[in-house]
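All the exercises in this workshop are built on plain-text protein records. The record below serves as our worked example for the rest of this section.
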Amino acid sequence: MIIREFGPDALLYEPDGLPSTAVERVRVLLELARSFGEQADAVVGSRSVLVSKLDSPEHSPAAPSPREPREHRIGVVYDGPDLVIAADVLGLSVDELIDRHQQPTYVATLGGFLPGFAYLSGLDSGLVLPRRAAPRPRVEPLSVAIAGRYSGVYPFASPGGWTLLGQATTPSLFDPLRDPPCLINLLDRVRFERVEPLARTTSALVEPDLRAGPVQVRITKLLGLATIQDAGRQGWRRFGVPTGGPLDRESFDHLCGARQPAIELALGGAEFTVEEGSTWVGIPGEEVRWLQPGDKLRVDSGPNLVRYVRFGGELQVSPILGSRSTLLGASWAGTLGLPLRKGQLLSFGAPEAPPKSRFPAVEPSAEEILLQLHPTADPRIDPSALPNLLTHARTVSPLSNRVGTRLDGPALRSEHIAVDESHPMVPGAVQITPDGTPIVLGPDSATMGGYPVIGVLDETSRSRLGRARPGQTIRLRLKP
């Protein structure tokens, strides 16, 4: 067995002599993952197991125990936007494509792209198509799709590059109150069945479930992206659940510590108005202020990408899987996966005494930000790539977000990427895309990915990168 360091807090286990078939491989890897017990979050990839040490195991699930695989029958309305084009490319009629898609019994051999997303092996070899050259910015929830030798169902709205054949009529693929939370788990079997179209309904905006508290604060002005974040979710990555949490953990920890939530403001400021009760507010680098009904708090954009605002009292948002962090796009996470918006009312419990009179702040980002890299020895990385990465300065791309930060600069070389292989990932992993661009995975990144990884940033470097604005210069160095 090959054991490789995957950043400062994880190990990647690659067993020798794995079976040739995907189903038998996942049996071996799943047994290996179970052997690590409750003190590790073991994520099963297509040929490896990634084991991360847990800082706070009290909020994580017990180690997975052996269970009998289940069979799921999923109705599909075959009316997807790619159905006709895919049939034409494959030289089939639409009915022939549908018949060949629903004929196999699929087996879940991988997960992790999204919470509740299962890679289903068993696709008819005559239906194999590559991923789209450019992913769609939005794929509708419950879209049934194919890519490579897999089929799958998107649990909720997200970007995606698979060929869309139709819409599933199954209930929720991921429910945080269910045990296990994923409907389809590794080694489960799936049959697709053609059903008649359902009446289309227009969904209205769902209001997040914010419990009432004695302190009411309304967002009266808002620029940029604002979300509720706490320290994140630990121990759920094997179910495809991102860790989440703050972009700049160093600044967040100065303000909130282990579990208290705060409002993360990215690339913009906000104004808050207290409508009921009195409370205090903390912002890194500023004196604590007490606010009374009618008082307004203006928070301007600072020199860093993100700022954090903490009001006294418990934010009245129910924790999901041990965390109040908002996972954008997930209808169950934080404020139903929605960013905060102008006019929204936030509720807080009775405020306790502020722990400090002034919360410390980190130094503003330097003109050139230095990041420390733990190399991963990924065999798919060209030998010239690491010297290239360390030699040349790069800039933060404006296309960056909470999922990943793109670093613009000279292209890096890596070997051909197998479309049917995906590997476990962690926040801070530096992936190399087919066009040679490094992308540093952020707190909301998927737990699985297909691109080679040249290294992993340590937590301090992830915080530095999290507060870097688009256009800022980045240099990487090997961790001493």
